[in-house]
Amino acid sequence: MAPRIKTRDRIVQESLALFNAQGERSVTTNHIAAHLGMSPGNLYYHFRNKQAIIAELFAEYEARVDGFLRLPEGRGLTVADKTFYLEALLAAMWRYRFLHRDLEHLLDSDPALAAGYRAFARRALANAKAIYAGFVEAGILCMNDAQLEALTLNAWIILTSWVRYLCTTQEVVGDLSEELLRRGIYQVLALESGHVAPQARAAVEQLSARLYVPLEDGAA
């Protein structure tokens, strides 16, 4: 028999599902409590407000990204690592997609969360830059330092604004689709296309073809 999930963990899991499906602004603590079949008082025993739940979810997202966005120990990078990083990014963005959907509002509403996010962003950018440098060292990408820095920043801008792009240019009713999110990962890979070394081009093009998802209505 599976162990029973703690009430606090249930609140976090179900809040994530509701935020993703309906948007964080549309979901109140009363909605969460009713969805879980508990009283608002019981929910407030575990979380003093909705911002506290969001902070918990951001901490999960942050730990997940920190866990995979790092160089492997004791070996150089390969094209297979590129697949790993992009698929891991897709999985993290999909699981916590509400964070990307209304990020500016979330950060404006909670100064502590905003400070934590800034620190996370600096760390993620530094780690991503080190990974790109690792691909250069491995002979997979050909870039100088200025190009490497620009590519890192451009990739970050795409990843953090892709959901907003979808919501403002595509007819998104309710929840997003994982396929449309996958296209955002493809866009990051497309940024690198002019920097791929000849010996790695066939493998990278194969990865690009796997990630490509067409956008409707000529928005591509």
From TrEMBL:
Signal peptide, first to last residue: none
Superkingdom of this protein's organism: Bacteria
Q: What InterPro entries is this protein classified in?
A: Homeodomain-like_sf, HTH-type_TetR-like_transc_reg, HTH_TetR, TetR
Q: Name one GO molecular function term.
A: transcription cis-regulatory region binding
**Looking at the UniProt feature table, which residue ranges are given for the DNA-binding region?**
28-47
- Domain HTH tetR-type, which positions? 5-65
Q: What does the UniProt keyword field contain?
A: DNA-binding
Q: Does the keyword DNA-binding apply?
A: yes
Protein name, entry field: Transcriptional regulator, TetR family
Q: Which organism is it from?
A: Pseudomonas panipatensis
